Each structure stands twice: as structure tokens, then as C-alpha cells.
Amino acid sequence: MLHLLHHIPLVAQADAETVAELAQKADLFEFEKIIWALAIIGAAVVASRVLQATLEKMGEGNAKRRLMLKKVASFSRVAIFAIALYMLVMTFFDAEEDKTALLGLGGTLAVTIGFALKDTASSVMAGILILVDQPFQVGDRVTFGDTYGEVTEIGLRSVRIQTLDDSEVSIPNNKFLTEAVTSGNSGALDMMIVIKFYISMDEDFDLARRIIYEACVTSKYVYLNKPVTITMKDDVTGMAFSTIIQCKAYVIDVRYEKAFETDVTARVKRAFREHGIEYPRVGISTAAA
């Protein structure tokens, strides 16, 4: 009994130290600090959205400036949230007094994130690599798997692509580290468009080539600072023998990709109808016979 009484002061002291530690830790979650932390998060979200809206408005009416400002917006969002994260940490810790605690917290968070959020952490790292290495940029027309469209945002977790039917696809950044992605314009405003036309093998292909070339170079969407090329070959499409005439031309702005294709195709079809140029017929053509 006396032996137990002898240890009571030690137990009481240990309990007091534990309570003191808990109280010190509880100090991290003071009401004022929580309010300040929420204010930082809210300010970061608002600043990111306001900045994005402002840059988008500034980019309207100037295509080259639009692409540049989209890239600036991507980097700015990352910077805003990085600063917000730093301010949150500094809200709860003193950099000088709690240096050891900060290092310990950083190590603990790194291990925790590494195991619990492995995919998310790899996506964040991949997002940073994409922003630095730039295999593609905001505003590029890219093909990734079955998805084709314009890159609208490169975030820390995912890349957002707006398809041509106006759907938005979100793809985790780490996917781009292991799978191939094709960029149609690689940061440029213009982009090559390939349009194919099929005619019967016994039609006047020289006339067809001239019609297609004129339709391309006279389109209001064509970028004439780069060459317009017409190629031709014979092939079997389905069960029909045909001559394939292919036009390679650059659209002045990637946003007009489908408008350019539609404009050229419509005028070529009208000209083919006027000159009696027919499309491939099923079976062997008279020229092949």
C-alpha cells in the first residue's frame, strides 16, 4: 500500500504533463485560428475564380492573347493554392518555435499521403511535371485514348478536356505519364486539318483536285501562311473502288476546326454536283475494267 502511495505523485505528474500536452495541442484549434483558416480557403477559391474569369474576358477578341492568358491562369491557380496552403500551416504553427514540429508534421503528412492517397499524390506530381515539361498546353487540341478536344485546364489533380460535342472530360494527371497523348497544335493557334473526299475512279480527278484546292484556299477559316497540300491515291473503300483526294490545310484558329471542315466540304459537294463528279459506286469501275 505504501508502495502504491509512493508512486501516486509520479502518476499525477505524468497525468498533468499529458493534460498540458493536450491543452497545447488543443491550442492549435482555437476558434480564431479556425475562422482565419476558413477565411484563407475562401479567399483562395474566390481569387482563383475571379482571376480565371478576368483572364478569360481579357482574352476575348484576341486569339493569340487568349491562349497565353489560359496558360497564365493554369500557373496562377497552382500558385494561389500553394500560397494558401503555406498560410494555413503558418496559421497553426510558428516557423521559428515549431520548426521541429513542422518537420515532423511534414514527414508524417508525406508518409500518410503516400499510403492513403497514393493515386492522388501521383496525380499532383504528374500535374507539376505537365506544367513544367509541357507535352501539351491549355488551348491545345489533344487526342487521349478515345477522347479528343481542347485542353481547358491543367490542374494539380486532373486535366480537363472539352470535346467537340461540348462535353467536359476530366482525366487524372498520372494517366498522361504512362499513356500516349497527341497534340494537334502544340501551343500554336493554328492547326493542320485533313479533309478527305472520295470520287469514282473513272471521274476527272484533275478537275476534282482543282475544286478541292480552290475551296480550301478561299475559305475564310484557312491560314495561308502555311502551305495547302493536295494528295491523291486509289483505294478500295468498302466494296467500291475509289480515288481518295486528301486536302491538308491549316485552320486559322483551332476553335474553327469544324467550321473550316464544314465550309470546305459544303462548297466541294456543290461544285462536284455542278460538274457531274460522282462518288464511288459499289462494284468494279469502268476504268478498272
TrEMBL record:
Species, as recorded: Persicimonas caeni
Superkingdom of this protein's organism: Bacteria
Principal subcellular localisation of the protein: membrane
TM annotation in the entry: 34-51, 72-93
A cellular-component GO term for this protein: plasma membrane
Domain Mechanosensitive ion channel MscS, first and last residues per copy: 119-182
Subcellular location: Cell membrane
Full protein name: Mechanosensitive ion channel
Lineage, broadest ranks: Bacteria, Deltaproteobacteria, Bradymonadales, Bradymonadaceae, Persicimonas
Protein keywords: Cell membrane, Membrane, Transmembrane, Transmembrane helix
Its membrane topology: Multi-pass membrane protein
Pfam families xref list: MS_channel_2nd
Signal peptide positions (record): none
InterPro entries registered for this protein in UniProt: LSM_dom_sf (IPR010920), MscS_archaea/bacteria_type (IPR045275), MscS_beta-dom_sf (IPR023408), MscS_channel_2nd (IPR006685), MscS_channel_C_sf (IPR011066), MscS_channel_TM-2 (IPR011014)
Gene3D superfamilies, per database record: 1.10.287.1260, 2.30.30.60, 3.30.70.100
One GO MF term: mechanosensitive monoatomic ion channel activity
Family: Belongs to the MscS (TC 1.A.23) family.
